[in-house]
Amino acid sequence: MATTLITGGTVVSATGRGEADILVDGERIVALLHPGTTALGANLADTVDTVIDATGKYVIPGGIDAHTHMSMPFGGTTASDDFETGTRAAAWGGTTMIIDFAVQKFGERVQDSLQTWHKMASGQCAIDYSFHQIVGDVNDESLAALRRLPDEGITSYKLFMAYPGVFYSDDAQILRAMQIGADTGLLTMMHAENGPAIDVLVAQLLAEGKTDPYYHGIARAWQLEEEATHRAIMLADLTRAPLYVVHVSAKQAVAQLAAARDRGRNVFGETCPQYLYLSLEDNLGAAGFEGAKWVCSTPLRSRREEHQDQVWQALRTNDLQMVSTDHCPFCMKGQKEMGIGDFSKIPNGIGTIEHRMDLMYQGVVDGRITLERWVEITSTTPARMFGLYGRKGVLAPGADADIVVYDPNGHTSIGLGKTHHMNMDHSAWEGYEIDGHVDTVLSRGKVVVADGEYRGRKGDGQFVRRAPCQYLI
Questions:
Q1: What is the rounded CA–CA span in Å between residue 440 and residue 406?
Q2: DSSP state of 378
Q3: How many CB atoms lie within 10 A of CB 234?
Q4: Would the pTM count as exceeding 0.85?
Q5: pLDDT tens digits, residue range 168-189?
Q6: CA quadruple 360, 366, 371, 377: dihedral positive or negative?
Q7: Angle formed by the axes of helices 251-262 and 222-239, to 10°?
Q8: Bridge-partner residues for 10, per DSSP?
Q9: Distance (Å, rounded) from C-alpha 302 to C-alpha 283?
């Protein structure tokens, strides 16, 4: 098996940083070494197959994006990235594992939907992957299937309090599913918005002739995110099921999560880069139909109301535990354009999988988070939250050699024709400048990105079975 030595870098973990060399044998890390040690021989660099010089750079565990939607069917179309293009873009950006969502729609069987997603992903992925299970039709049969998910290496499932007629679950269905979550240790993931109320506001706005993308954000008001978040927390409290609220965008929803955690509950939340950087006014409110690029749910929030600053603060204080992307890209042409004249028909989703690590590193440069917290919220906590820690999310002997060499003295310009490998005809992050650069990416010991070149191939990635959540209190 091939051996690799990464030398001269500063190894950064969730708990600290220090100078160390990393020895990789095949797919695994076998040693972290003090620079200059002769413990494994006086000339170790001469005995390995490959030496990577990381002098002046950070060496971190590969990023884990725990919320992606490759080939996701939504709103009469399908997400423009499939498992091949999406995971290749992820690798370019320093992400070495994704957790995607298998989608059970109304009238389908859970086990059939899971097999469909296995078939779509198998042999296509550039990096390792796993699945959460979306349950869009909670009934006796699907609840029985939930109990069997851990046998498939799937230890989390997702429900929706939004999208009546598509994925929506009412409180009784949520309660029954959470009871199984409490029984089995499955982590309940929740899209927390009051869907029926949103539908009323959408209809009223359209009737008033308010059809532009901006009104997507008005219809999905923060009160409806806060209310649904509180309701989900109360149902989890009743059932004692662990709860993970996805794509938190409103500061009021953050406060609900923080209050539950202060009571000692196993309640967690993620946010996404769009809720840290983008806004209702600047993006959804862009001239004409341009705002469609940034239609996602939960929606972008008002900068005047300081949601972005409060979400950053929640990341610092661990009231929010991690950052995923909710990567669900759609092109403007032929997809987002479906909503011209009716914002409710714009497919919901933004493409970010390639840029998460860079965007969050910019938070380090800007003094928003520490270097260690960057690693924690993008790699280590996702690994712990979703039963991967020890194999993923850490640089330690025995762990998979998912490693990123990151150059703090480099620079990344995001946009079409610059840094953009996602299968989209636009970039939601056009013009963003990052004071850092992904230098080298290893996935299970194989160099997949180096020297500005992609060296991986589809099929490099493997399905990873997951253990139960390792983040419970």
A1: 7
A2: I
A3: 13
A4: yes
A5: 999 999 999 999 999 999 999 9
A6: negative
A7: 20
A8: 19, 58
A9: 10
